[in-house]
Amino acid sequence: KKGGFRFYMEKEIYEQFEVLKENTLGRNTKEGIKFEEVDKKFFEGINNIIISACGTSYHAGLVGKYLIERDAKIRVNVEVASELRYREPLLSQDTLFIVISQSGETADTLETLKMAKKAGLKTLALCNVDNSSIVREADKTILLRAGIEKGVASTKAFATQVMTLWMLSNYLANKNEYYAINEAIEVTKVDTSLHEKIKRLSKRYTKGHGFFYIGRDIFFPLALEGALKLKEISYIHAEGYPAGEMKHGPIALADPDLYVVALLSKNILFDKTKSNIEELVARDATVLTISSEYIEMTDDFIRINETNHPMVEFFEMMVITQLLAMEVAIRMGNDVDMPRNLAKSVTVE
Ligand code: M6R
Protein backbone atom coordinates (compact mmCIF):
# COMPACT_ATOMS: atom_id res chain seq x y z
CA LYS A 1 0.00 0.00 0.00
CA LYS A 2 2.93 2.25 0.56
CA GLY A 3 3.92 1.63 -3.04
CA GLY A 4 7.53 0.71 -2.24
CA PHE A 5 8.04 3.64 0.10
CA ARG A 6 9.15 3.16 3.69
CA PHE A 7 6.40 5.33 5.11
CA TYR A 8 3.17 6.93 3.96
CA MET A 9 4.78 10.26 4.67
CA GLU A 10 7.48 9.51 2.12
CA LYS A 11 4.89 8.39 -0.42
CA GLU A 12 2.87 11.54 0.18
CA ILE A 13 5.91 13.79 -0.26
CA TYR A 14 6.64 12.09 -3.56
CA GLU A 15 3.00 12.38 -4.61
CA GLN A 16 2.93 16.15 -4.34
CA PHE A 17 3.78 16.73 -7.97
CA GLU A 18 0.76 14.70 -9.15
CA VAL A 19 -1.49 16.04 -6.43
CA LEU A 20 -0.72 19.66 -7.34
CA LYS A 21 -1.53 18.94 -10.96
CA GLU A 22 -4.88 17.62 -9.80
CA ASN A 23 -5.37 20.59 -7.47
CA THR A 24 -4.86 23.12 -10.27
CA LEU A 25 -6.64 21.19 -13.03
CA GLY A 26 -9.25 23.38 -14.71
CA ARG A 27 -8.47 26.12 -12.18
CA ASN A 28 -5.12 27.42 -13.38
CA THR A 29 -5.81 28.23 -17.02
CA LYS A 30 -4.03 30.37 -19.58
CA GLU A 31 -6.94 32.80 -19.36
CA GLY A 32 -6.56 33.13 -15.61
CA ILE A 33 -7.93 31.37 -12.53
CA LYS A 34 -11.30 29.66 -12.66
CA PHE A 35 -13.14 28.15 -9.71
CA GLU A 36 -16.27 26.16 -10.43
CA GLU A 37 -17.20 26.35 -6.77
CA VAL A 38 -17.38 30.13 -6.42
CA ASP A 39 -18.00 33.12 -8.62
CA LYS A 40 -16.95 36.73 -8.50
CA LYS A 41 -20.33 37.64 -7.05
CA PHE A 42 -19.57 35.70 -3.90
CA PHE A 43 -16.67 38.08 -3.19
CA GLU A 44 -18.61 41.30 -3.81
CA GLY A 45 -18.50 43.75 -0.93
CA ILE A 46 -15.60 41.99 0.79
CA ASN A 47 -13.11 44.40 2.34
CA ASN A 48 -11.41 42.06 4.82
CA ILE A 49 -10.55 38.42 5.15
CA ILE A 50 -10.11 36.38 8.30
CA ILE A 51 -8.42 33.01 7.93
CA SER A 52 -8.93 30.54 10.79
CA ALA A 53 -7.07 27.23 11.10
CA CYS A 54 -4.80 25.06 13.26
CA GLY A 55 -1.28 23.65 12.91
CA THR A 56 -0.04 23.19 9.37
CA SER A 57 -3.25 24.62 7.94
CA TYR A 58 -2.62 27.78 9.96
CA HIS A 59 0.85 28.07 8.41
CA ALA A 60 -0.67 27.80 4.95
CA GLY A 61 -3.03 30.61 5.95
CA LEU A 62 -0.08 32.81 6.85
CA VAL A 63 1.36 32.34 3.37
CA GLY A 64 -2.06 33.33 2.02
CA LYS A 65 -1.91 36.60 3.97
CA TYR A 66 1.36 37.66 2.32
CA LEU A 67 0.03 36.80 -1.13
CA ILE A 68 -3.48 38.24 -0.87
CA GLU A 69 -2.42 41.48 0.79
CA ARG A 70 0.38 42.05 -1.69
CA ASP A 71 -1.55 41.22 -4.83
CA ALA A 72 -5.24 41.69 -4.12
CA LYS A 73 -4.79 44.52 -1.59
CA ILE A 74 -7.36 43.05 0.78
CA ARG A 75 -6.55 43.06 4.49
CA VAL A 76 -6.09 39.53 5.86
CA ASN A 77 -5.90 38.42 9.49
CA VAL A 78 -4.82 34.86 10.16
CA GLU A 79 -6.01 33.33 13.40
CA VAL A 80 -5.25 30.21 15.40
CA ALA A 81 -8.73 28.75 15.76
CA SER A 82 -8.35 27.74 19.41
CA GLU A 83 -7.58 31.36 20.28
CA LEU A 84 -10.10 33.05 18.02
CA ARG A 85 -12.85 30.90 19.42
CA TYR A 86 -12.58 32.10 22.98
CA ARG A 87 -11.86 35.75 22.55
CA GLU A 88 -14.36 38.32 21.46
CA PRO A 89 -13.27 39.13 17.94
CA LEU A 90 -14.77 42.04 16.06
CA LEU A 91 -16.48 40.46 13.11
CA SER A 92 -17.74 42.95 10.54
CA GLN A 93 -20.12 41.96 7.78
CA ASP A 94 -17.74 42.99 5.00
CA THR A 95 -15.36 40.23 6.07
CA LEU A 96 -14.98 36.93 4.28
CA PHE A 97 -14.26 34.15 6.76
CA ILE A 98 -12.02 31.42 5.36
CA VAL A 99 -11.33 28.17 7.22
CA ILE A 100 -8.53 25.87 6.14
CA SER A 101 -8.54 22.22 7.15
CA GLN A 102 -7.21 18.99 5.73
CA SER A 103 -9.64 16.75 7.63
CA GLY A 104 -12.62 19.06 7.85
CA GLU A 105 -13.16 17.77 11.37
CA THR A 106 -10.86 19.88 13.54
CA ALA A 107 -13.08 20.91 16.46
CA ASP A 108 -11.68 24.39 17.05
CA THR A 109 -11.70 25.34 13.38
CA LEU A 110 -15.28 24.11 13.03
CA GLU A 111 -16.41 26.13 16.03
CA THR A 112 -14.92 29.34 14.64
CA LEU A 113 -16.74 28.68 11.40
CA LYS A 114 -20.03 28.39 13.28
CA MET A 115 -19.22 31.56 15.16
CA ALA A 116 -18.59 33.47 11.92
CA LYS A 117 -21.80 32.20 10.38
CA LYS A 118 -23.75 33.26 13.41
CA ALA A 119 -22.30 36.74 13.04
CA GLY A 120 -23.58 36.77 9.45
CA LEU A 121 -20.25 36.56 7.62
CA LYS A 122 -19.77 34.86 4.29
CA THR A 123 -17.79 31.69 4.79
CA LEU A 124 -15.47 29.71 2.55
CA ALA A 125 -13.73 26.42 3.37
CA LEU A 126 -10.52 25.17 1.82
CA CYS A 127 -10.77 21.52 2.72
CA ASN A 128 -9.55 18.13 1.61
CA VAL A 129 -12.45 15.95 2.73
CA ASP A 130 -15.74 16.35 0.93
CA ASN A 131 -18.83 16.08 3.07
CA SER A 132 -16.82 16.63 6.25
CA SER A 133 -18.34 18.72 9.06
CA ILE A 134 -16.53 21.86 7.90
CA VAL A 135 -17.61 21.43 4.28
CA ARG A 136 -21.21 20.93 5.36
CA GLU A 137 -21.12 24.04 7.50
CA ALA A 138 -19.43 26.47 5.10
CA ASP A 139 -21.30 28.53 2.48
CA LYS A 140 -18.81 27.53 -0.19
CA THR A 141 -15.93 25.08 -0.40
CA ILE A 142 -12.92 24.78 -2.62
CA LEU A 143 -11.76 21.18 -2.34
CA LEU A 144 -8.02 20.61 -2.10
CA ARG A 145 -8.00 17.37 -4.11
CA ALA A 146 -4.93 16.05 -2.27
CA GLY A 147 -6.30 12.50 -2.01
CA ILE A 148 -6.32 10.66 1.32
CA GLU A 149 -3.49 11.81 3.55
CA LYS A 150 -2.41 9.07 5.95
CA GLY A 151 0.73 10.41 7.54
CA VAL A 152 -0.02 12.35 10.71
CA ALA A 153 2.52 14.91 9.53
CA SER A 154 0.74 16.86 6.84
CA THR A 155 2.69 17.27 3.60
CA LYS A 156 0.68 17.05 0.41
CA ALA A 157 -2.34 18.69 2.03
CA PHE A 158 -0.15 21.67 2.96
CA ALA A 159 1.10 21.87 -0.63
CA THR A 160 -2.47 22.03 -1.95
CA GLN A 161 -3.54 24.55 0.70
CA VAL A 162 -0.76 26.94 -0.27
CA MET A 163 -1.42 26.39 -3.96
CA THR A 164 -5.15 27.04 -3.54
CA LEU A 165 -4.43 30.26 -1.65
CA TRP A 166 -2.03 31.32 -4.37
CA MET A 167 -4.73 30.71 -6.99
CA LEU A 168 -7.29 32.52 -4.84
CA SER A 169 -4.96 35.47 -4.56
CA ASN A 170 -4.54 35.54 -8.35
CA TYR A 171 -8.30 35.29 -8.70
CA LEU A 172 -9.00 38.18 -6.35
CA ALA A 173 -6.25 40.32 -7.87
CA ASN A 174 -7.14 39.48 -11.48
CA LYS A 175 -3.55 38.41 -11.86
CA ASN A 176 -2.40 35.68 -14.18
CA GLU A 177 0.58 33.62 -13.05
CA TYR A 178 -0.25 30.56 -15.10
CA TYR A 179 3.36 29.80 -16.01
CA ALA A 180 4.79 30.45 -12.56
CA ILE A 181 2.18 28.11 -11.03
CA ASN A 182 3.15 25.37 -13.46
CA GLU A 183 6.82 25.98 -12.73
CA ALA A 184 6.12 25.66 -9.00
CA ILE A 185 4.39 22.32 -9.56
CA GLU A 186 7.33 21.11 -11.62
CA VAL A 187 9.88 21.69 -8.85
CA THR A 188 7.97 19.52 -6.39
CA LYS A 189 9.01 16.43 -8.36
CA VAL A 190 11.45 14.75 -5.99
CA ASP A 191 14.92 14.39 -7.37
CA THR A 192 16.28 11.11 -5.98
CA SER A 193 19.88 12.31 -5.87
CA LEU A 194 18.78 15.31 -3.83
CA HIS A 195 16.88 12.95 -1.53
CA GLU A 196 20.07 10.88 -1.11
CA LYS A 197 22.01 14.02 -0.26
CA ILE A 198 19.46 14.97 2.40
CA LYS A 199 19.65 11.44 3.81
CA ARG A 200 23.42 11.78 4.20
CA LEU A 201 23.15 15.30 5.57
CA SER A 202 20.63 14.27 8.22
CA LYS A 203 23.44 12.45 10.06
CA ARG A 204 24.84 15.75 11.23
CA TYR A 205 21.53 16.99 12.57
CA THR A 206 20.44 14.57 15.27
CA LYS A 207 22.43 15.58 18.33
CA GLY A 208 22.17 19.32 18.91
CA HIS A 209 20.11 21.16 21.46
CA GLY A 210 17.57 22.42 19.01
CA PHE A 211 16.75 23.85 15.61
CA PHE A 212 15.82 27.25 14.32
CA TYR A 213 14.28 27.57 10.89
CA ILE A 214 14.59 31.11 9.64
CA GLY A 215 13.19 33.03 6.70
CA ARG A 216 11.57 36.30 5.71
CA ASP A 217 8.25 37.10 4.03
CA ILE A 218 6.53 33.92 2.75
CA PHE A 219 9.59 31.97 3.87
CA PHE A 220 8.78 32.82 7.47
CA PRO A 221 5.60 30.70 7.50
CA LEU A 222 7.58 28.04 5.64
CA ALA A 223 10.12 28.21 8.48
CA LEU A 224 7.28 27.70 10.96
CA GLU A 225 6.05 24.73 8.98
CA GLY A 226 9.53 23.21 8.56
CA ALA A 227 10.03 23.43 12.31
CA LEU A 228 6.62 21.91 13.07
CA LYS A 229 7.33 19.03 10.71
CA LEU A 230 10.64 18.31 12.39
CA LYS A 231 9.39 18.51 15.95
CA GLU A 232 6.29 16.40 15.50
CA ILE A 233 8.13 13.41 14.07
CA SER A 234 11.69 13.69 15.43
CA TYR A 235 10.80 15.00 18.92
CA ILE A 236 13.66 17.48 18.64
CA HIS A 237 12.89 21.01 19.72
CA ALA A 238 12.52 23.29 16.72
CA GLU A 239 11.26 26.80 16.17
CA GLY A 240 10.44 28.80 13.10
CA TYR A 241 11.50 32.42 13.36
CA PRO A 242 11.50 35.52 11.21
CA ALA A 243 15.16 35.86 10.22
CA GLY A 244 15.25 39.51 11.30
CA GLU A 245 13.98 38.68 14.79
CA MET A 246 16.87 36.40 15.77
CA LYS A 247 18.87 39.32 17.11
CA HIS A 248 16.06 40.17 19.51
CA GLY A 249 16.74 37.21 21.75
CA PRO A 250 17.13 33.77 20.19
CA ILE A 251 20.63 34.46 18.85
CA ALA A 252 21.77 34.12 22.49
CA LEU A 253 21.27 30.37 21.99
CA ALA A 254 23.79 30.19 19.15
CA ASP A 255 26.65 27.73 19.59
CA PRO A 256 27.89 24.81 17.45
CA ASP A 257 25.10 22.60 18.80
CA LEU A 258 22.40 24.98 17.65
CA TYR A 259 21.22 23.97 14.19
CA VAL A 260 19.82 26.57 11.85
CA VAL A 261 18.00 25.90 8.60
CA ALA A 262 18.14 29.12 6.61
CA LEU A 263 15.61 29.64 3.82
CA LEU A 264 17.43 32.13 1.64
CA SER A 265 15.32 33.43 -1.22
CA LYS A 266 17.08 35.03 -4.13
CA ASN A 267 13.95 37.01 -4.93
CA ILE A 268 12.86 38.42 -1.60
CA LEU A 269 15.16 40.31 0.81
CA PHE A 270 18.22 38.31 -0.16
CA ASP A 271 20.84 40.66 1.35
CA LYS A 272 18.94 41.16 4.57
CA THR A 273 18.47 37.43 5.12
CA LYS A 274 22.07 36.74 4.17
CA SER A 275 23.31 39.13 6.81
CA ASN A 276 21.11 37.40 9.40
CA ILE A 277 22.81 34.14 8.42
CA GLU A 278 26.23 35.80 8.74
CA GLU A 279 25.37 36.84 12.28
CA LEU A 280 24.59 33.24 13.21
CA VAL A 281 27.72 31.93 11.52
CA ALA A 282 29.80 34.50 13.42
CA ARG A 283 28.38 33.07 16.65
CA ASP A 284 29.32 29.57 15.59
CA ALA A 285 25.86 28.09 15.00
CA THR A 286 25.74 25.11 12.65
CA VAL A 287 23.90 26.37 9.58
CA LEU A 288 22.30 24.62 6.63
CA THR A 289 21.34 27.08 3.89
CA ILE A 290 18.79 26.33 1.19
CA SER A 291 19.07 28.71 -1.75
CA SER A 292 19.71 29.01 -5.47
CA GLU A 293 22.55 31.40 -4.69
CA TYR A 294 25.62 29.63 -3.36
CA ILE A 295 26.97 31.05 -0.13
CA GLU A 296 30.21 29.66 1.08
CA MET A 297 30.15 30.52 4.75
CA THR A 298 27.62 27.99 6.06
CA ASP A 299 28.32 24.40 7.11
CA ASP A 300 25.91 22.85 4.63
CA PHE A 301 24.23 24.03 1.49
CA ILE A 302 21.39 22.67 -0.60
CA ARG A 303 20.97 24.24 -3.99
CA ILE A 304 17.54 24.88 -5.48
CA ASN A 305 16.77 25.89 -9.06
CA GLU A 306 17.30 29.42 -10.18
CA THR A 307 13.95 31.15 -10.72
CA ASN A 308 12.52 34.65 -10.72
CA HIS A 309 9.43 33.73 -8.75
CA PRO A 310 9.52 33.41 -4.96
CA MET A 311 6.63 30.93 -4.93
CA VAL A 312 8.66 28.58 -7.11
CA GLU A 313 11.46 28.80 -4.56
CA PHE A 314 8.87 28.23 -1.85
CA PHE A 315 7.62 24.94 -3.26
CA GLU A 316 11.10 23.56 -3.86
CA MET A 317 12.22 24.52 -0.34
CA MET A 318 9.03 23.01 1.08
CA VAL A 319 9.89 19.57 -0.32
CA ILE A 320 13.44 19.84 1.04
CA THR A 321 12.27 20.72 4.55
CA GLN A 322 9.80 17.82 4.49
CA LEU A 323 12.48 15.35 3.41
CA LEU A 324 14.92 16.69 5.98
CA ALA A 325 12.43 16.30 8.85
CA MET A 326 11.58 12.80 7.69
CA GLU A 327 15.20 11.66 7.32
CA VAL A 328 16.22 13.03 10.72
CA ALA A 329 13.25 11.25 12.33
CA ILE A 330 13.89 7.95 10.52
CA ARG A 331 17.53 8.10 11.57
CA MET A 332 16.36 8.42 15.16
CA GLY A 333 14.30 5.26 14.77
CA ASN A 334 10.86 6.88 14.87
CA ASP A 335 7.68 5.82 13.15
CA VAL A 336 7.13 8.99 11.14
CA ASP A 337 3.56 8.03 10.20
CA MET A 338 2.43 7.63 13.78
CA PRO A 339 4.29 10.12 15.96
CA ARG A 340 3.75 9.74 19.68
CA ASN A 341 0.97 11.70 21.40
CA LEU A 342 -0.59 12.87 18.13
CA ALA A 343 -3.77 12.03 16.21
CA LYS A 344 -4.39 12.68 12.54
CA SER A 345 -7.45 14.72 13.21
CA VAL A 346 -8.05 16.62 16.40
CA THR A 347 -11.77 16.41 17.03
CA VAL A 348 -11.52 17.38 20.68
CA GLU A 349 -10.57 20.80 22.01
O1 M6R B 1 -7.16 18.59 9.52
P1 M6R B 1 -6.63 19.97 9.83
O2 M6R B 1 -5.92 20.58 8.69
O3 M6R B 1 -7.70 20.88 10.36
O4 M6R B 1 -5.59 19.75 10.98
C1 M6R B 1 -4.93 20.80 11.62
C2 M6R B 1 -3.75 20.32 12.42
O5 M6R B 1 -4.15 19.44 13.43
C3 M6R B 1 -2.70 19.64 11.55
O6 M6R B 1 -2.31 20.44 10.48
C4 M6R B 1 -1.46 19.25 12.37
O7 M6R B 1 -0.79 20.40 12.77
C5 M6R B 1 -0.56 18.32 11.56
N1 M6R B 1 -0.25 17.13 12.30
C6 M6R B 1 0.75 18.93 11.17
O8 M6R B 1 1.53 18.07 10.43
Q: How would you explain this protein's 3D organization?
A:
The protein is α/β, with parallel strands linked by helices and 349 residues long. Helix content is 41%, strand content 17%. The protein has helices at residues 8-14, 16-24, 55-72, 81-84, 107-118, 133-137, 156-173, 178-186, 192-201, 219-234, 270-282, 310-331, and strands spanning 28-29, 32-33, 48-53, 75-80, 95-101, 122-127, 140-143, 210-215, 238-242, 258-263, 286-291, 300-303. The chain is globular. The structure holds 5-amino-5-deoxy-1-O-phosphono-D-mannitol. 5-amino-5-deoxy-1-O-phosphono-D-mannitol is lined by residues 54-57, 101-103, 106, 109, 152-154, 228, 232, 345-346.
Give descriptors for this structure.
transferase; alpha/beta; binds 5-amino-5-deoxy-1-O-phosphono-D-mannitol; repeat; EC 2.6.1.16; 349 residues; five-stranded parallel sheet; globular; single chain; 17% strand; 41% helix
Strand order of the largest sheet: 4-3-5-6-7
How many strand units? 12
How many whole angstroms does the radius of gyration measure? 19 Å
Bound molecule kinds, no repeats: 5-amino-5-deoxy-1-O-phosphono-D-mannitol
Structural class: alpha/beta
Count of helix runs: 12
- End-to-end C-alpha gap: 32 Å
Poorly predicted sequence stretches spanning 5 or more consecutive residues: none
Largest sheet: 5 strands, parallel
Instruction: Provide the succession of SSEs.
Output: HHEEEHEHEHEHEHHHEHEEHEEH
The proportion of residues in beta strands is 15-25%
Shape: globular
Helix content: 40-55%
Q: Mean pLDDT, as a whole number? A: 96
Domain SIS: 38-178, 201-339
GO molecular function, one term: glutamine-fructose-6-phosphate transaminase (isomerizing) activity
Protein name: Glutamine--fructose-6-phosphate aminotransferase [isomerizing]
Keywords: Aminotransferase, Glutamine amidotransferase, Repeat, Transferase
